[in-house]
Design goal:
It contains 24 helices and 10 strands. It is α/β, with parallel strands linked by helices. The protein has 4 domains: 89 residues, no CATH class; 204 residues, Rossmann fold, CATH 3.40.50; 50 residues, no CATH class; 123 residues, no CATH class. The longest helix has 21 residues. The chain is elongated, with a radius of gyration of 27 Å. The protein starts with a helix and ends with a helix.
Length: 504
């Protein structure tokens, strides 16, 4: 198909959006559009055909003449030939007029609204009961006052980075004099674009109503003089959601987008991702120097710039609970657990009518941890495979020396055999992969997401290897296999079992 025909098809797609009132920026809108087309023309265009046209499904062929003719009639033309004549007389084979800032803002914010609605619906606690966090304001204030074009919120699974970003976007979009454009979507949309065979930047341009990047760059330069900003935000850019080749290709396209717009202070890229993704791909992300603003990036056991809840935030969240109980003088050991957003979410679900963290004891804390483990490991699919993987990976660790890392190379065949179970363990943050060294000593280590997962898994494995018997041999195994550092944490799980008389 010629360049001009491609231009006309893009023009037709924009006409369809205007006629239907849909931006067709998420796959679900394609179904509604198919219904609207049939109601108006009495001709059937399948949802899949529309998805192919808008880049949500892979297509090796151009749209058929029947499809183009029907869509042109839907746009109030007599057919495809009539549409071509009308467009030719208007444009004389010229590019479409540049879309202005207000139209761009409307199109972008509509997609952002759909994304926000989906993410809020997946919140473990009702979104209205979640809180805005101060760190996100501090992070963006420093970012926007810096010279950087891109920033990333890095944290393990369950740290609340997505909800924190949603609250920030909510607030920015309600400020009437903040003439900013925010285009926010999830990595699933990126994956759909990739699978359709389209270039990410080209898809973004067509989504916003532009035919070439030159038009968009010109607009950004104009708005830069007015001190306005365009935010491109992508949530959940994590390698575990993609195949290896797919993720590498998407990183390359993201870096290309940064290269195109990095000389324009108006353009800002914001990503969220897990710590392991950032660590494992840091060389790819940092090919372009002086681009990424990382904020207060903590680098000890974890790499993250998203802090856990502080006491004030725990108190504020508790005040929003069903019972409106605000804890005072929260016990340090409980605060250490509830400061993790994921654990707070589980605790809230367990105590909807009697929410009072102050009354919780050590047993309640371990029960909270086990509730997460039971739900994520034992209640779903591949439960047996998950436990088998955990047991074998622990076998590769030197528990006596306190080395709680397993070389992925040594268990790679096992991982390939139970790949779905392994990916689930990664996705919930039970495991994380960390690359160390970039020379001849390069190694990918598998580690547990936190100390609680580690101690529980060790306790479960040692008990399993002792035929699930609590006897002298179990005590001897604990003393022989474990150093003092983690011995107490493992024994606590056995004591909880003994008190509750329930299997660990």
């Amino acid at each position: 198909m010629s360049k001009f025909s491609t231009y006309y098809i893009e023009s037709l797609k924009k006409h369809i959006c205007l006629i239907s009132g849909l931006s067709v920026d998420i796959p679900s809108e394609c179904k509604w559009l198919a219904t609207m087309i049939f109601d108006k023309t009495q001709k059937q265009i399948s949802e899949t055909t529309i998805k192919r046209m808008y880049g949500f499904a892979f297509s090796r062929f151009d749209p058929s003449l029947f499809t183009l003719d029907t869509l042109a009639k839907y746009c109030d033309y007599r057919g495809w030939d009539d549409f071509l004549k009308a467009q030719s007389s208007i444009s004389n084979y010229a590019e479409m007029p540049a879309v202005d800032w207000d139209i761009l803002k409307t199109n972008a914010h509509k997609m952002t609204g759909f994304t926000m609605q989906a993410l809020k619906g997946r919140s473990g606690i009702a979104y209205a009961m979640t809180i805005k966090r101060k760190f996100i304001d501090d992070h963006f204030q420093a970012f926007l006052n810096s010279r950087y074009n891109a920033t990333v919120l890095v944290a393990p699974a369950g740290y609340g980075k997505t909800l924190a970003l949603c609250h920030w976007i909510d607030e920015r979009m309600t400020i009437t004099d903040a003439n900013e454009v925010i285009l926010f979507f999830s990595s699933n949309a990126m994956l759909n674009v990739h699978l359709s065979g389209r270039d990410l930047n080209g898809w973004l341009l067509s989504l916003m109503g532009y035919s070439t990047e030159d038009d968009f760059v010109t607009l950004l330069k104009t708005q830069q003089r007015k001190k306005e900003r365009f935010f491109l935000m992508i949530d959940g850019v994590d390698e575990i959601l993609f195949k290896q080749g797919q993720f590498r290709a998407l990183i390359t396209q993201l870096m290309d987008i940064i290269s195109i717009y990095q000389l324009n202070d108006c353009f800002k890229l914001v990503l969220t991702m897990r710590s392991s993704t950032w660590i494992n791909n840091i060389n790819s992300f940092e090919k372009e120097k002086d681009i990424w603003f990382l904020g207060d990036l903590i680098n000890h056991n974890l790499v993250t710039n998203v802090p856990l809840f502080n006491i004030r935030e725990i108190t504020e969240l508790s005040g929003k609970s069903a019972s409106k109980v605000i804890p005072e003088n929260l016990a340090p050991n409980l605060a250490e657990i509830l400061n993790h957003p994921l654990y707070f979410q589980i605790y809230h679900k367990q105590h909807k009518t009697s929410f009072n963290p102050k009354n919780s004891d050590e047993t309640a804390i371990h029960k909270l941890i086990f509730s997460f483990i039971a739900d994520k490991l034992y209640a779903g699919t591949y439960a047996t495979e998950k436990f088998f993987l955990i047991k074998e990976i622990i076998k590769e660790m030197d528990l006596r020396k306190g080395n709680f890392k397993a070389d992925k190379c040594r268990v790679i065949d096992l991982i390939k055999k139970h790949n779905n179970a392994y990916l689930e363990l990664l996705s919930i943050g039970f495991f994380q992969e960390v690359n160390t060294g970039y020379t001849i000593l390069h190694k990918t280590n598998i580690e547990f997401g936190n100390i609680h997962f580690l101690e529980f898994s060790i306790a479960k494995t040692i008990l399993f290897n002792n035929n699930d018997l609590f006897d002298k041999q179990l005590v001897q195994n604990i003393n022989q296999l474990l150093n003092m550092g983690c011995r107490l944490g493992v024994i606590k799980w056995y004591l909880i079992y003994a008190v509750k008389i329930k299997p660990v």
